[in-house]
Write a structure and sequence with these properties.
The complex is a heterodimer of chains A (about 220) and B (about 300). Chain A has about 220 residues and is of the alpha+beta class. Helix content of chain A is about 20%, strand content about 30%. In chain A, strand 1 (about 5-10) and strand 2 (about 15-20) form a beta hairpin. In chain B, helix 1 packs parallel to helix 4 (about 290-310). The chains are: A alpha+beta (about 220), B alpha+beta (about 300).
Chain lengths: ~220, ~300
């Protein structure tokens, strides 16, 4: 493995700009900043710029564009000094959560905390929206309280209900649609995270912040 | 208007998919065999990205409620139009009231039915492609059902049945290995696992969907990394979960994934894999990135010639 940053292919029509490994806030800020810079540069043939943990994927039209030349441009962009002209306005979202998920008791047992303490530790922080991925509306949020960090479930569920609030590793998130899923379900929210008729369709955007607010019935 | 008289088991409205929404975690969706969709569209005089019916698994019947120029592409099918056997290698005129019956799909998995003017469902996020997991796009975001009435776009007044398409228009069924490019996580895979990927005859599992095709093989006797942070993926990405059965992502697949991305099926080859049916055997062979991009340009030249041949 070579060092960081590096540019490598993802198939014939996408390139990855890899800045590092991990989910820490500093790395995520650099990834989101780089994705914004690449997006603003309007490079010819570039169709989509997708941030994720440690890397940015750049999708392009490989029929009309020279992938080698684009790789060189991206390598330069990754090395350019990180100037963020002004700190953009970041939205704060408060999502009401009923903490009655099917895995809440299991999470409490495995972390050695009471259910009330799991809820307190999950609903206390303001999380960063790292990026969106997996399914429409799904935002990767973090960092999670260290006491709540657990590996994914051994056996993923075939169906996780829409609105499920879940944790896995150092991350937390909300399943926007009914999908399969391997995270621990601790609650549910009525917030609509994705609506294709809305502009933008996603409630959350990278760089936004999210807090979960416990509600009774 | 097209009326679905007898819905096939798995049919959706598809075009070339959504461009520019991956960062919002909205997959591209669109045809599993985009080349076949484009060919069918060009044969009836449509633009490449017009919406058509992606028709899978088995037969069914539809009726055209106006005069139409139609073409089938992709998998081969035993079909009749107005009771007469349908020649498959060119566009056909259907009269208002004519029924198209696909008795069965013969070779391949997905047939594309293009109609002049295209299927005129409302675009969602810039595309008419059905995305089943979130139930949007296409016809009411779902599989076609018996009784559905699909609106058609206005046919171009100059649209005439095209000449026969040039050689190479069909995604040929061959035993040739499916090409592969090394994936971003190839370096995390030990040499024996790489040899296994390239030396094994895989079977397409019954667990195929528009999100991904699972491939079955004797299990890989190696410990693979389990929990990883999610990283970008694309249609064609070959993921290797800890269980050792590769999953090839298809157009409805997730935009990021937590499994090892050991390889990527090149753009021009993914349709050929998508046309494989459960139980079919596939092998893989590594090609150079420059060769994958050269094949993409050659395919483009072929489509250009087809578009010019009217």
């Amino acid at each position: 493995m070579s060092g960081f940053p590096r540019v490598e292919p993802l198939g014939d029509s996408a390139l990855l700009v890899v800045l590092g490994e991990g989910a820490d806030a500093w790395l995520m800020a650099r990834v989101v900043g780089l994705a914004e810079r690449i997006g603003r540069a309007h490079l010819p043939g570039v169709r989509d710029v997708v941030p994720a943990y440690g890397s940015v994927a750049v999708f392009f039209d490989a029929v009309s564009q020279d992938g080698e030349a684009l790789a060189e441009q991206l390598a330069l962009a990754a090395q350019a000094p990180e100037t963020r002209a002004q700190a953009p306005q970041r939205a704060m979202h408060v999502l009401p959560v009923r903490y009655d998920g099917p895995d809440l008791a299991d999470v409490a047992e495995r972390t050695g905390l009471s259910s009330a303490e799991v809820i307190r530790r999950h609903s206390q922080p303001a999380y960063d929206v790292h990026f969106l991925g997996f399914a429409p509306g799904f935002a990767y949020l973090g960092p999670l309280d260290a006491a709540l960090v657990l590996p994914r479930r051994g056996e993923p569920r075939r169906r996780v209900p829409a609105g499920s609030v879940a944790i896995a590793g150092v991350q937390t998130g909300v399943y926007p649609l009914e999908t399969p899923g391997g995270w621990h379900l601790i609650g549910r929210t009525g917030a609509v995270l994705f609506d294709p008729a809305r502009d933008p369709p996603n409630l959350l955007a990278p760089g936004d912040r999210v807090r979960f607010s416990p509600v009774e019935e | 208007m097209i009326t679905v008289l007898k819905a096939p088991p798995f049919a959706t409205v598809q075009d070339l998919g959504r461009i520019g929404h991956l960062h919002a975690a909205v997959p591209r969706a669109g045809a599993l065999d985009p080349f076949a969709l484009i060919v069918a569209n060009l044969m009836v005089g449509n633009s490449r990205d017009a919406a058509a019916i992606e028709w899978g698994v088995a037969g069914g019947e539809v009726r055209f409620e106006r005069d139409a120029i139609i073409a089938l592409s992709g998998a081969t099918a035993a079909a009749t139009l107005g009771g007469r056997p349908l020649a498959e290698d060119r566009a056909q005129r259907a009269r208002a009231g004519d029924s198209l019956t696909i008795e069965r799909i013969q070779t391949g998995a997905w047939v594309y039915l293009a109609v002049d003017g295209g299927i005129d469902v409302p675009p969602v996020l810039g595309s008419r492609a059905t995305y089943l997991p979130a139930r949007f796009g296409g016809f009411e975001g779902r599989l076609l059902r018996t009784g559905d009435r699909l609106p058609l776009g206005r046919a171009a007044p100059t649209a005439v049945p095209q000449k026969q398409p040039p050689v190479g228009w069909r995604t040929d069924k061959t035993d040739a290995p499916i090409a592969l490019l090394p994936g971003p996580d190839r370096g995390l895979l030990a040499a024996p696992a790489w040899d296994w990927l390239l030396g094994t005859e895989f079977r397409v599992s019954r667990a195929v969907s528009r999100m991904g095709y699972r491939l079955e093989a004797p299990p890989l006797a190696l410990t693979l990394p389990g929990d990883r942070l999610s990283a970008p993926a694309c249609p064609g990405t070959v993921q290797l979960p800890p269980g050792g059965e590769p999953i090839v992502l298809m157009p409805d697949g997730p935009t990021v994934g937590g499994y090892l991305r050991i390889a990527v099926v090149p753009t021009t080859e993914l349709g050929r894999l998508a046309q494989c049916t459960p139980g079919e055997r596939v092998r893989f062979q590594i090609i150079e990135l420059s060769e994958a991009r050269a094949r993409l340009r050659r395919q483009e030249e072929l489509l250009h010639r087809l578009a010019q041949s009217a």
